[in-house]
Design a protein that fits this description.
With 115 residues, this protein is mainly β. It is built from no helices and eleven strands.
């Protein structure tokens, strides 16, 4: 499975940005996709996850501001980020998972939120 993330960049606080993650390769049986992020000097953390059935969960700090979605026909996942804050600055990574023992990561994309 190969994942490629798009959409990072620089945005002012309060602004919006959408990340995309395109999956290719042996994507059958991918059950969960998600976004993680890693800020400088911090551990990588889960931002949002979505199952193949569309169930979602979010880290508390982004609830109400971020929305994860996926288009199964296009094998693409999205993260719509609104009301961005400087503390959202991080490298964002997409993840595809068959099960906890078969996880695939995309390259990171840097999101920088200026105050």
């Amino acid at each position: 499975v190969q994942l490629q993330a798009f959409g990072g960049g620089l945005v002012q606080a309060g602004g919006s940005m959408r990340l995309s993650c395109a999956a290719s390769g042996s994507i059958g049986s991918i059950t969960v996709m998600g976004w993680y992020r890693q800020a400088p000097g911090k551990q990588r953390e889960l931002v949002a996850r979505i199952t193949i059935d569309g169930f979602t969960n979010y880290v508390d700090s982004v609830k109400g501001r971020f929305t994860i979605s996926r288009d199964n026909a296009k094998n693409t996942m999205y993260l719509q980020m609104n009301i961005l804050k400087p503390e959202d600055t991080a490298v964002y990574y997409c993840l595809a998972e068959r099960d906890p023992y078969n996880r695939y990561w995309g390259q990171g994309t840097l999101v920088t939120v200026s105050s």
